[in-house]
């Protein structure tokens, strides 16, 4: 295991069972952090993440929780504290996507999307505001779609924009404790969630739209999250970092 200032840190990563969340959990553990890997549905995938971390000499445990429910959000912190001690790093990655024209968007889908994508990070941030160690780190995963005009993405983009504003306000509220709060906004990233419902031509077109002419990899996002958790990013707070290869 390498160490970049995280060897005695404790991290919670929500939505850690696959995709970007999985990559973040692995990357934080590789830098020495003890990781609580959260999942809500796929226990098998979450167990694989923990097994991969442990096989590489890292420390990790898995906890099921729906972060859009206040008592379950609190339970994640309680589990991390019981296993490893006070939490230093929170990564709010859990989320879902549903795309449709605004005129056709079902109200139940709207409520569900905001419940998961906005209420979840809000509850976790609210819990972190009282429990995170001084000098800690919060990273919220948002999306580059807040910067582009894509049809069918309106409601999804609105959820991510809301989290970006929560990020900016919370950075001011926690700054006196030297806690940094930032958002990372991936562009098109090669995950099962991104590929779902898209044709090969659509995926290729989105890859070519990036300046670097490829899709992002989950590890591309994870590396930036790790940076934000290290002392090297101690003067970065209240920011939304587009990590998109020049997509927007």
Task: Provide the fold topology.
Blueprint: E1 10-13, H1 19-30, E2 34-39, H2 43-55, E3 60-64, H3 70-84, E4 89-92, H4 107-131, E5 137-141, H5 154-174, E6 180-186, H6 192-195, H7 200-209, H8 218-229, E7 240-243
Parallel strand pairs: 1-2, 1-4, 2-3, 4-5, 5-6, 6-7
Helix pairs in contact: 1-2, 1-8, 3-4, 4-5
Summarize the structure.
This protein is of the alpha/beta class and 248 residues long. The chain has eight helices and seven strands, in the order βαβαβαβαβαβαααβ.
Could you describe the largest sheet, including whether it forms a barrel?
Answer: 7 strands, parallel
How much strand? 5-15%
The domain tally reads: 1
Structure classification: alpha/beta
Q: Give the integer mean of the pLDDT values.
A: 96
- Cross-sheet strand order for the largest sheet: 3-2-1-4-5-6-7
Shape: globular
- The CATH homologous superfamily name equals NAD(P)-binding Rossmann-like Domain
CATH topology tier name: Rossmann fold
Helix count from the secondary structure assignment: 8
Which second-level CATH architecture applies? 3-Layer(aba) Sandwich
Distance between the termini: 35 Å
């Amino acid at each position: 295991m390498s160490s970049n200032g995280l060897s005695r840190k404790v991290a919670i990563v929500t939505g850690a069972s696959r995709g970007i969340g999985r990559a973040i959990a692995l990357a934080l553990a590789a830098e020495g952090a003890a990781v609580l890997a959260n999942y809500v549905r796929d226990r098998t995938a979450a167990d694989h993440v923990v097994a991969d971390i442990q096989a590489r000499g890292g420390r990790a445990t898995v906890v099921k929780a729906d972060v859009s429910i206040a008592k379950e959000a609190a339970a994640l912190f309680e589990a991390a504290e019981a296993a490893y001690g006070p939490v230093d790093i929170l990564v709010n990655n859990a989320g879902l996507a549903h795309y449709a024209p605004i005129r056709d968007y079902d109200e139940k889908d709207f409520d569900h999307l905001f419940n998961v994508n906005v209420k979840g990070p809000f509850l976790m941030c609210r819990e972190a505001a009282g429990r995170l160690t001084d000098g800690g780190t919060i990273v919220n995963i948002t999306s580059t779609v807040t910067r582009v005009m894509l049809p069918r993405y309106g409601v999804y983009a609105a959820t991510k924009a809301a989290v970006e504003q929560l990020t900016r306000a919370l950075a001011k509220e926690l700054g006196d404790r030297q806690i940094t709060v930032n958002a990372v906004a991936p562009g098109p990233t090669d995950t099962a969630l991104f590929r779902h419902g898209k044709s090969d031509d659509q995926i290729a077109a989105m890859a070519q739209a990036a300046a670097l002419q490829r899709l992002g990899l989950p590890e591309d996002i994870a590396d930036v999250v790790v940076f934000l958790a290290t002392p090297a990013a101690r003067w970065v707070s209240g920011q939304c970092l587009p990590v998109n290869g020049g997509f927007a």
